[in-house]
Structures are given as C-alpha cells and as structure tokens.
Specification:
Layout: H1 13-76, H2 80-85, E1 92-101, E2 104-113, H3 130-231, H4 245-257, E3 263-265, E4 271-273
Antiparallel strand pairs: 1-2, 3-4
Length: about 290
C-alpha cells in the first residue's frame, strides 16, 4: 500500500484500537462541522435577504431626505454655517451588541436615540420654512437608523461568509484527506496482522513436521537396530495383538521419503501439507 495515502504507523493491536478511536472522533467532528456549516448558511441567507431589503429601503429614504434638504435650501437659503455653529451632543448613538451564531462571534449595531439631549436646532426655521426643517430632521434621523442597520447586516454577512468558507474547507479536508487516510491505515494494519498470523501458522506447521520427522527417524533407527539384534537371537518376542514390525518400518520409511512434508498453498491462501503421518493425534498438535 502506498505510504502517502496512510499514516506511518506500526501494525499492532494497540495501534488498531487507536486508529478506530481516532475514526470515531473524526466522524463526530465531521458531523458537528456539517451542522455548523448548515446553521451558518441558514443564518447567512436570512441576513442576505434582510440586507437586500434594507438596501432598497435605504435608497428610497436617502432620496426623500435629500429632497427635503433641497426644499430647505430653496426656502431658507444656505444653512450649512448655521448647522456647523450649533453642533452639540449627538441625539442618536450606536450601541455594539455581541452575538454568537453557531460558534461565530459577530457584532450587531443598534441605533439608540437619546431624548434627554438638548436639540440646538429646535428653533431653526421659525421665521420661514419651519415645517420643511422638521420634515428634513425626521428624514435624516430615519436615514441614520437605516444606515446603522445596513452596516450591521453587511458586517454580519461578511463574517458569516468567511466562517462558512473556513468551515467548508475543514469539512472537505476531513472528508477528502483525513478520513481516507484513516481507512487506509486501518486496512493496512489488518492486512499486516493477517499476514503475520498466516506466517506464524505456517511456521508452527513446519516445526511440527520437522519434529515428527526427527521422531520418525529416531524410531526407525531403533527399529533397525532391534531387527538386527533379532537376527542374532537377542530380539524379544513380539507382543500379542501388535502390528507386524515390517509394516511399521515400511510406514516410517514412507514418512521419511515423503517429500510432501514441504508445504503447498491452496486456493484460499492457507498452507497445508500434502500428506501427514497416519498416527497423528490431536494431542500432538501445537496449534
């Protein structure tokens, strides 16, 4: 397996448990990020629709405010110098309100009108055009409130857009990079552990075959030596019911001559000897 598509880990049971634990954590974080991105999208659509409607209203309000200002100039002449001379405290202030949207900190602006502040231009237009002056004041107050709302919505849309892009990058990174690497790492560990198990199984079979072969050779030597002693008259009588000695010798000779104690592979990939000694018991097996 390509090492670039997996993490460099050692194939062990502990590492397999660790990779599975990481997969659970990554899946949990992936689901949370997807929910966060969806919530930010919904809030972003709401803010965008409010921003579009506020922008349309703002254009109409500003147009009416400047029309009323033009009417004052036509009635009373230039009054810029008078306004600049009578500037005092602001009657409309902007309040910053912190807001948390699915883990994203945003700041909304709210216009607050202070009624207790003295209006230095409350007597403007008493001689002529007082009605026009009052209408212009109201129009520009409404324009300031709308501008503050527009600025707040625009700031919220910008922050939400950046947060959505960052969250989607994280989601795509987890989905396209981290999760495939974890799956490939788990597959690699499983393959390596299965391969080690097959090698250990084959090693045990070879050890058992070698042990049986050495026992058969030792028994054959004893049998041959015992047979030679019988010819000189020193061999004991055969026990009743025991198989003939020449049959045992032939069987052991066939075991030693059998080249099938070497292993072959089957279709399933397991190693199996072609032939086994006929006198094997379950207690003799090491595996």
């Amino acid at each position: 397996m390509n090492t670039e598509n997996r993490y460099p880990v050692t194939a062990s049971l502990f590492m397999l448990k660790e990779i599975k634990h990481r997969q659970e954590q990554v899946n949990r974080g992936y689901q949370l990020l997807k929910r966060k991105a969806e919530a930010l999208r919904i809030r972003g659509r709401q803010a965008a629709s409010e921003l579009a409607s506020t922008q349309a209203i703002l254009g109409h309000i500003l147009r009416e405010a400047y029309i009323s200002l033009a009417a004052i100039k036509f009635t009373n002449g230039e009054s810029n110098a008078l306004v600049l001379e009578n500037i005092g405290q602001a009657q409309i202030r902007v309040q910053r309100i912190s807001e948390n949207i699915s883990g994203v900190s945003t700041i909304s602006l709210q216009a607050l009108e202070e009624t207790g502040v003295c209006d230095s231009m409350r007597y403007a237009g008493l001689g002529a055009g007082g009605h026009r002056t009052t209408e212009a004041k109201k129009a520009f107050r409404e324009a300031v409130r709308t501008l503050v709302k527009f600025a707040s919505l625009r700031n919220t849309c910008i922050l939400l857009d950046e947060s959505i892009r960052s969250t989607l990058r994280k989601v795509n990174g987890i989905e396209k990079v981290i999760m495939p690497k974890l799956r490939n790492t788990e597959t690699y560990i499983m393959m390596e552990m299965d391969e080690r198990e097959r090698e250990e199984f084959h090693r045990l079979k070879m050890v058992k075959a070698k042990k049986v072969k050495s026992q058969a050779r030792a028994f054959l030597r004893q049998t041959v030596s015992a047979g030679g002693g019988g010819e000189t008259g020193e061999a004991d009588e055969a026990e009743p019911g025991a198989p003939p000695r020449h049959h045992s010798v032939e069987c052991l000779t066939s075991i030693l001559a059998c080249s099938s104690l070497t292993t072959t592979t089957t279709d399933s990939g397991d190693f199996k000897p072609v032939c086994y000694p006929h006198n094997w018991d379950d207690d003799d097996l090491l595996f």
